[in-house]
Design brief:
Layout: E1 6-17, E2 20-31, E3 35-39, H1 46-52, E4 61-66, E5 69-70, H2 76-81, E6 84-87, H3 99-105, H4 113-126, H5 128-132, H6 143-155, E7 161-165, H7 173-188, E8 192-196, H8 200-206, E9 209-214, E10 217-223, H9 224-229, H10 231-238
Parallel strand pairs: 3-8, 3-9, 6-7, 7-8
Antiparallel strand pairs: 1-2, 1-4, 4-5, 9-10
Helix pairs in contact: 3-6, 6-7
Length: 241
């Protein structure tokens, strides 16, 4: 893998909540423009890794590099300035703010007002329902619409890497289909995507490469297509298909 093309790289990363260590020597990379997933059971450390990779949780050891610069311990603002955006599990919208204002919160570090307006229109093109709902409060949206708004908010920061925690959790199949189409559009624009997704088959179908985490460690890594055909992965995470 060419080092100059790597957007995010973790090297033996360790993290803890207080005295409880959660990540143990996690190493993974995301290249510019590619789509990668992290799969594993609940409690495997997937969300914790994204929290580290966006500055929401400090690290205990190892290195976390963005564009080759070690960002371990950096603030969320510093990660955003490095063009890394995080769509957290549960969406975390401002429920009493309009859809439009929620989206604009993603651009709060930007000072290019004209281009922010252009990007807002691009989000509305990707998610037409948000254009219709632009004046509604975020808290009045359906679950799928809230996820669209959360992803749109991430796009508004003009990320080079968009990290999404649990894309489809609790959503209707039609909403998931729309979100998958949107991710493919976002990826074609050149944005790298790091995805955590409970539906392992969907995650492996969407992405080029995959990492399997178990109890805070990466236990397997490789091409997503090969993972989907791996009997051990199918038995552990997809059941008998």
């Amino acid at each position: 893998m060419s080092t100059g093309n790597v957007k995010l790289s973790a090297e033996n990363l360790q993290a803890a909540y207080g005295d409880v260590q959660v990540l143990w020597d996690v190493s993974l990379t995301v290249e510019r423009g590619e789509m990668v997933c992290i799969v594993g059971s609940n409690g495997a450390g997937k969300s914790t890794f994204l929290r580290c990779a966006s500055g929401l949780l400090g690290t205990k050891g190892g290195r976390l590099l963005v564009d080759g610069q070690d960002m371990a311990g950096a603030s969320p603002e510093a990660f955003l300035r490095r063009k890394v955006a995080h769509v957290p599990e549960g969406r975390r919208l401002f429920r009493a703010m309009s859809v439009r204002d929620n989206l604009l919160m993603g651009a709060y570090l930007r000072d290019d007002a004209a281009e922010v307006r252009q990007d807002l229109e691009k989000v509305y093109e990707i998610f037409p329902i948000l254009a219709e709902r632009r004046d509604q409060y975020g808290g009045t949206l359906s679950g799928g619409e809230q996820q669209m708004c959360a992803i749109g908010r991430g796009i508004m920061s003009r990320p080079e890497l968009l990290m999404i925690d649990e894309l489809s959790l609790g959503l209707a199949p039609r909403a998931v289909e729309l979100l998958i189409t949107a991710l493919q559009t976002i990826r074609r624009s050149g944005t790298a995507i790091l995805l955590i997704e409970q539906d392992v088959m969907t995650a492996l179908e969407l992405t080029e490469r995959a990492y399997v985490m178990d109890r805070g460690r990466v236990v397997k890594a490789g091409a997503s297509a090969a993972m989907a055909d791996d009997p051990a992965i199918r038995d552990a995470y997809m059941g008998q298909l």
